[in-house]
């Protein structure tokens, strides 16, 4: 092989500078300066990369060619507020329905009521955000003119069509104190559909050509359900009396552990393509989420069952952590779509491996 | 039409996408484009013809500094895009007009050359002589990009409204009266083709001139192409033509010539619009090994199912640990 660079799980090795369109295939690649020279990029393309102490520089600059540095794929047209906001609210609603059912079964009346109401509010907000993000909001009902298993967004629309009225019935009947048997059935139904609402959004973004999303499709559902549990636990801590907070504290621990473990596994597996999760805006959001969820979980463990104000503050931190996680994942996807190297380098490496396997 | 039951319709070779989409056995054969970039002269007639025929709005007049490319890339308002790449590299055995040796051509019989009977090739060394300022060769790559009309089209697969559909010609078209502008197809496309027209809200892309095909006419870009760089026709025939042209170029010493998107074995099951390129795909802004994202959809749903079960099970376990609430009261 003419070029001695490549990608493995530790990132890119043997990288070479230069990403201008002037290439000429194999011939000019071999004409380039040898690897290990200080990296140079075109003007205005170099982004700050401050090496933090004690942390290995994940991936060196990748050598690859592109068309004038322009992205290969189109970045999502979705607005971060609408779509990442929807992921957050959908997770809050879905996991909240599970907590509500558990609270009802164990006799925690205030917690059950609060989470039913919050799930209804969150899923209503989700719907509003989803419709708002459409280019033609008046045509939102077209989502239900087909049943299409290959489209996660279509499946999600049907899922929301089933979940939202169920969660709504659970909340309304609870508040009205009427039809307790139907109310219990609705609570149970929402608890069964809720986890699907929390998890499917990871498939929604995984099923795109966006490298950081698509390649993370195995772990992202766990990141999202973990983050959903964090949000719902936060809401429970805010809205329930301290005497009922035992399960909410447990949910906070569970959600934080699940989400951070899944994120760590994902970033390790993705290597180079996972870089955007740690850098730039998305990296800052992720670190904020980590700090907030650690603080919220610690606060909940220490004071969640003793001090109403401390419990509420911990809950607020957990809600904010979940929101930061979703916005971070969203921004990481956008960043990985906007830089052609995340599209070109892994694909080129795949071809190289294929060719090596054939030879 | 063979049965669609029990076959993997998400990826892999697929002989009859239109039939698999439900068009009857009498549907027309699959058509597409073969864009031979080795004869593209960068005139952009395809861009203009496309805009005119399809009434695609103007989308900004900018000077980019990217050689002669001020169009920049495909999008909602650009369905054909001509890329320009300047390289310091000879094109096969091609000879430049620079003639420092002062070779005498007076004895050449141009009529015999045109008839192809005697064609004494110019000495190879001439191509290597540098010009006084040290530069050697310049080659100028031009390529007209377009929607690939994939065999496995991610945009179509993920469309939640059914606005994107497979035509009887095996092409992929957006129904503008259905599209609600959800934008899902935009990041789903592995080539960055389809995009949203912001002021309109809906998405737009090449239709392979669906309206012209129905009338038995070739698409506007192919019609307008003065060098037949854009060739339209039945896909099987185009693949044969492309293979022949590739052999011809390899014989002429253009070793970098390669077909792109032609193989039904590739990640999208082969493109309905494929290319002959003179360099690596990424040089033209094309992904080197695109894969339809829905290939992994079964795995995605499995992992999401496991994650949902983990959430339900985990929270159930939390409540199991805190069961004694009523007793404690």
3D architecture notes:
Chain B: [4Fe-4S] cluster 1 binds at residues 40, 43, 46, 225. Chain B: Its cofactor is [4Fe-4S] cluster. Chain B: The chain crosses the membrane at residues 300-321. The complex is a heterodimer of chains A (359) and B (329). Chain A is mostly helical and 359 residues long. Helix content of chain A is 65%, strand content 2%. Chain A has helices at 25-31, 80-105, 109-133, 152-176, 180-206, 211-214, 220-239, 246-270, 280-303, 308-338, 341-358; strands at 6-8, 11-13. A two-stranded antiparallel ribbon of chain A has the order 1-2. In chain A, helix 2 (80-105) packs antiparallel against helix 3 (109-133) and helix 2 (80-105) runs antiparallel to helix 5. Mean pLDDT of chain A is 87; it is low at 17-60. Chain B has two domains: 25-91 and 127-291, Alpha-Beta Plaits; 299-328. Chain B has a four-stranded mixed sheet with strand order 8-1-10-9. A two-stranded antiparallel sheet of chain B has the order 2-3. Chain B has a two-stranded antiparallel sheet with strand order 4-5. The radius of gyration of chain B is 26 Å and the shape is elongated. At the A-B interface, helix 1, helix 2, helix 4, helix 5 and helix 7 of A face strand 2, helix 4, helix 5, strand 6 and helix 9 of B.
Write the layout of secondary structure elements.
The complex is a heterodimer of chains A (359) and B (329).
Chain A: E1 6-8, E2 11-13, H1 25-31, H2 80-105, H3 109-133, H4 152-176, H5 180-206, H6 211-214, H7 220-239, H8 246-270, H9 280-303, H10 308-338, H11 341-358
Antiparallel strand pairs in A: 1-2
Helix pairs in contact in A: 2-3, 2-5, 2-7, 2-10, 3-4, 3-7, 4-5, 5-7, 7-8, 7-10, 8-9, 9-10
Chain B: H1 17-20, E1 31-36, H2 45-54, E2 80-87, H3 110-115, E3 139-146, H4 154-158, E4 164-166, E5 172-174, H5 185-188, E6 195-196, E7 203-204, H6 210-214, H7 220-224, E8 230-234, H8 235-251, E9 258-260, E10 273-277, H9 297-321, H10 325-328
